[in-house]
C-alpha cells in the first residue's frame, strides 16, 4: 500500500531527468504556455523542464523528428478556456481534450493554424459557442469529435469540403438547424455521422443517399422528411439509428443492406409494412421499430437467428396494426 502511494504521489518517478532532451524548444515553450494558461497552480506535475517534454503526461512526439505530434489531456483539475497558444504546436496531428468539466469558452480560431491535424477531439467539456466554420481549413482532418459539450448554432456546411473526413460526432450538444445538404458530397471513405441528442430540425437532404456511411446516428432531434435515403442494398452501413424524430416515410419501400447490425427507427411516424426483404439483413442484432404507424404481418424466422428468444414485443409495439410473432396473431 505504501509503495502504491509513493508511486501515485510521484507519477514521474520512472522518467529520466537527463540533460539530453529530444524535445524541440519551441514545442516545450508552447506546452508550458498551455499549462500556464489555466488558473490551477500545477495541473500536471510531470510537465517540468527537467524532463524531456516528449515524456510529459499526454504528450507524444514523432520518433524521427521529435516534434510534438500528439496531445491527449483528460483532467478534472483544469479550469479555464482552450488557450490559443495551442496553435504554436505546429506539428500537432492528434489533439484530444476529453473529460475536462471546467473547460469553458469557445473553440479558438487559432486552431485553424494546426494544418497537420488529423484527429481532433474536444469532448465531455463545458465548451460553448458554435462548431466553428474555420475547422474547414484543416484539410488533413479525418476524425472530428465534438460530442458532449454545450455547442450551439448550426452545423457549418463547409465541413463537407474536408477531403479526408471519415467521422463526425457532434452528439449531445445544443445544435440547431438542418443537416447541411453539402454532407451528400463528403468524400472520406465510409464516413460515420453521429449527431444524436441535439435540436436539429428540417428535412433530411436527399443528397445523403449518395453516401456509403459506415454508421448513422441522428436520434433524438426534431428532424423530418424521408430518412429512407440512408438505406439501400449496395451499401455497407452497419448502424442506422434515427429514433425520436419526426420522420414520415413508407417502410415497405426500404431495402436493407446485408451489413446492417443495429437498426432503431422507433418514435417516428413511419408507415407501411415491414418488408420481407429485411430478412436479408442476416447480421441484424438489434432492432426497434416501435412507436410508429406500421401495419401488417411481421416477417417470420429472421428474428430468431441471433437471439434464441427472438426479439421481444417491445421492438414492435405501439404501431398502428403490426401483427404476428412476437405480437398478437394476425386476424
Ligand atoms: C515521423 O516523421 C517522419 C519524417 O517526417 C515521417 O516519415 C513519419 O511518417 C512520421 N511518423 C509518424 C508516426 O507521424
Ligand atoms: C475556475 O476559475 C475561476 C476564475 O479563476 C473561478 O471563479 C472558478 O470558481 C473556478 N471554478 C472551478 C470549478 O474551479
Ligand atoms: C459542465 O459544468 C457543470 C457545472 O459545473 C457540470 O455539472 C457538468 O458535469 C459539466 N459538463 C461536463 C460535460 O463535464
Ligand atoms: C419540430 O419540428 C416541427 C416541424 O417539423 C415543428 O412543428 C415543431 O414545433 C418542432 N418541435 C420542436 C420541439 O422544436
Ligand atoms: C458501398 O461500398 C461497397 C464496398 O466498397 C461497394 O461495394 C458498394 O458499391 C458501395 N455502394 C454505394 C451505394 O456506393
Ligand atoms: C424499443 O424502443 C422503445 C421506445 O424507446 C423502448 O421502450 C423499448 O424498450 C425498445 N425495445 C428494445 C428491444 O430495444
Ligand atoms: C409484451 O410481452 C409482455 C410479456 O410477455 C406482455 O405482458 C405484454 O402484454 C406484451 N405486450 C404486447 C403489446 O403484446
From TrEMBL:
InterPro entries, per database record: Leu-rich_rpt, LRR_dom_sf, LRR_N_plant-typ, PGIP
UniProt KW keywords: Leucine-rich repeat, Repeat, Signal
Protein name: Leucine-rich repeat-containing N-terminal plant-type domain-containing protein
PANTHER family (alphabetical): POLYGALACTURONASE INHIBITOR 1, POLYGALACTURONASE INHIBITOR 1-RELATED
Similarity-based family: Belongs to the polygalacturonase-inhibiting protein family.
PROSITE patterns: LRR
Locations listed in the record: Cell envelope
Pfam assignment, any one: LRR_8
Record lineage: Eukaryota, Viridiplantae, Streptophyta, Embryophyta, Tracheophyta
Signal peptide: 1-16
Top-level taxon of origin: Eukaryota
Leucine-rich repeat-containing N-terminal plant-type domain mapped to chain residues: 24-62
Amino acid at each position: 500500500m505504501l509503495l502504491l502511494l509513493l508511486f501515485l504521489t510521484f507519477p514521474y518517478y520512472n522518467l529520466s531527468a537527463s540533460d539530453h532532451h529530444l524535445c524541440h524548444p519551441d514545442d516545450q515553450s508552447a506546452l508550458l504556455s498551455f499549462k500556464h494558461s489555466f488558473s490551477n497552480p500545477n495541473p500536471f506535475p510531470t510537465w517540468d523542464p527537467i524532463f524531456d517534454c516528449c515524456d510529459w503526461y499526454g504528450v507524444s512526439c514523432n520518433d524521427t523528428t521529435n516534434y510534438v505530434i500528439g496531445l491527449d489531456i483528460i483532467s478534472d483539475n483544469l479550469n479555464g478556456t482552450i488557450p490559443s497558444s495551442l496553435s504554436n504546436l505546429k506539428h500537432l496531428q492528434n489533439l484530444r481534450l476529453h473529460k475536462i468539466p471546467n473547460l469553458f469558452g469557445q473553440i479558438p480560431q487559432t486552431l485553424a493554424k494546426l494544418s497537420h491535424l488529423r484527429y481532433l477531439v474536444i469532448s465531455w467539456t463545458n465548451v460553448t459557442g458554435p462548431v466553428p466554420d474555420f475547422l474547414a481549413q484543416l484539410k488533413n482532418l479525418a476524425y472530428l469529435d465534438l460530442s458532449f459539450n454545450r455547442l450551439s448554432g448550426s452545423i457549418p456546411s463547409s465541413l463537407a469540403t474536408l477531403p479526408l473526413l471519415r467521422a463526425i460526432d457532434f452528439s449531445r450538444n445544443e445544435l440547431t438547424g438542418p443537416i447541411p445538404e453539402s454532407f451528400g458530397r463528403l468524400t472520406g471513405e465510409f464516413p460515420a455521422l453521429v449527431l444524436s441528442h441535439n435540436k436539429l430540425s428540417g428535412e433530411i437532404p436527399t443528397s445523403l443517399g449518395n453516401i456509403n456511411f459506415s454508421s448513422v446516428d441522428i436520434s433524438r432531434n426534431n428532424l423530418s422528411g424521408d430518412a429512407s435515403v440512408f438505406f439501400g442494398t449496395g451499401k455497407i452501413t452497419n448502424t442506422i439509428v434515427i429514433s425520436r424524430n419526426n420522420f414520415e416515410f413508407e417502410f415497405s419501400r426500404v431495402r436493407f443492406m446485408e451489413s446492417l447490425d443495429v437498426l432503431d427507427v422507433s418514435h417516428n411516424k413511419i408507415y407501411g409494412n415491414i418488408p420481407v426483404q429485411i430478412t436479408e439483413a442476416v447480421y441484424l442484432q438489434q432492432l426497434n421499430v416501435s412507436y410508429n404507424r406500421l401495419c401488417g404481418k411481421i416477417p417470420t424466422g429472421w428474428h430468431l437467428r441471433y437471439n434464441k428468444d427472438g426479439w421481444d414485443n417491445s421492438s414492435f409495439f405501439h404501431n398502428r396494426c403490426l401483427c404476428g410473432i412476437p405480437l398478437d396473431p394476425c386476424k
